[in-house]
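Appendix B. Raw example, untouched.
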Amino acid sequence: MFRNIFLLVVCISLKYQYNQGEMPITNTSSSPVKANIRIFTIEPKMIYKTNPFLFEGTDGKQTDGSGDDSTINTEETTTVGREELEETDEVSIRVKVSDIPQEFVKVTGKKLNISDTLGNNVTIVRYLGIPFGLPPVDNFRFQRPSLNILQKDFTANELPPPCPQLSPRGDMLGDENCLFLNIYVPEDASLKEETETVQERITRLPVLVWFHGESVEKLTVYQNFGILMSGSAADLEPDVFVQKKIVVVTPQYRLGSLGFLSTVNEDLNGNMGIFDQLLALEWVNRFISAFGGDSKQITIMGHGGSAMTLGLLATSELARGLFHRVILMAGSPLSPVSVDNSPKSTFAEIALQNACPSFPTLRFVRCMQHKSVSKLVDADFQLTSGKNLGNVKMPLPIVQRNADGRFLPPIVSLSPSTAFTTGNFEQVPLILGVSAAEMAGFLPSLAGKSAKEVPTSVLGSNAVLKQFIRSFVSRGPTDPEVVSQLVTFEYFAGLNVTQRVEQAVDLLEEMISDFLFNVPAIQLAKLWSRFAPVYFYVFDYVRSGTGQTDESSRQSFGPNQAIHGGDINFLLTGHKGSSADRQVSEPLQEFWVNFIHKGSPLHSGIDWPQFREDTRAHILFRDQVEVSRNFRIRQDFLWNNLLEGLSKRECPPRRKTNTNRNSVITFKDPEDFLKYTSALSPRGKKVISEVNSPDGFTALI
């Protein structure tokens, strides 16, 4: 009997360590690993210090990377000065991976000489393809990631494969074994002479952990609306930051169904991609000191989909203390597509698309684990293609609320609105903003050629348009019928969409931009600013020489407007353009760099005020960078205040259209009535008559 009890305790202990990601199983290669069989052994649990690295000093002695006597063994190099990249000498560091027994591995990267068009020469050191998570393959597909601890010397000179996605040619690209990160370090980042000590000590630099967003090119090449389904660490060019004495880390995370599918129970609890991001941050906090980074000065940055997931991560108890500043570009965790409000419906659609049984859920998981990666990626594409734009179902993060049945804590336990309203998030400084026309050109790109060829399923008639809007906004918390009536009136009142297709396309893109990007960003700024500093921006600059105003411009993603991805692209490459471009890019880059260094976006000539609910001050990046106020204030009121109020009061407005195209709208609350009618004049609309009826306050507009 005692023997059986002992074996039971051992089994439970092993299962717990495996679920927690603490089993000493490692992958020391950057190549794909098939994990059909796992052998578990009982070994002493490794004990980690805050800075578990050792370096080889210039005198050949091993020194503790956590103290004042550490240095990186580098060799002097000369800068070539050509306007291109050139790899030169290798650089190696010794990494302490275990205390009991003491074990070390050597990680080798390469120096890279960079010469820009202005003749500035910089040398950086890059370490590519370092594995931070065990391969999530075979039976570990759809599971939470486990930490990967290197067990032998590692050469970090090759970019890792991206996580599975479609290539621009439509082929499957990447590998499931994709939990890698790249590290970019200034050449002289880690050395500083200290006169009061005998040995050299490390000067820690601030760290930027930069998670890629979706590929804008792939969104349009595929005619696809998928979020969190494309992109890789190779898409990111960190030179701008590394040249300013910042250590940059670019991790990868699982995408699509592999990263965000959920059965909403313990069989497949979801949010695997966010757990990947969390694991990457844990790895950085443990090991970044080896590369000259300061684990007490970590900024996380995301764009688009990754901005949404990082915002969710900020609400997680599991991520407390892992970062100290946040930059969210063109994405908000309060966006209707940041979390799936109907995950069971999405799960059923994905099961149908993959020809897997939806019940019992464990059988569904086993079926999905045996599907080829290419089939899973293709199924995701079919669900999010342009033909289904009005009723998109895609794997997204979910609110897990409770433990997943294995006594493992959830990573997203509160709805985003609840978390940010109550202050249950990491209250650190935030840069947040959007491009002025996020979705401009997006619908024509889905159609394939021009605005006139937007699918009739969207703009076949006014009635079809209303149905499309109703389907599109159904992801929000408010009754979609309420939303569709008010939104149709706000954006399309009096417009015959079949006769003025191009104008209707512009207005529809404006509506989608407000719904998915602008208003959720404003709402997050209002809530976050109650607890910590917020710096809001609007990017409304088009690179000189690239503007197009003719019909051909609508055949590709990006007419003459600041579109989705314009802000991040210009941040990285604007300094390479014309003098007009540099006039905008210089303060943009300086704001970001100073925020990462000091927690405040400083600039010698421009004061960026904190965002406050009463003033709504923000920086506007146009031909002249300036302070502005009240970005999309009426639309913010429509989407956030008015519709939320209607939802709470369960009093949907009643709208009728008479023969003169006038509208009758009734509100139960007089405050909502006054606010909405007063907001009509900027659009050339007016209240013809007002009636205080038993049903409420009615206006003929």
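End of appendix B.
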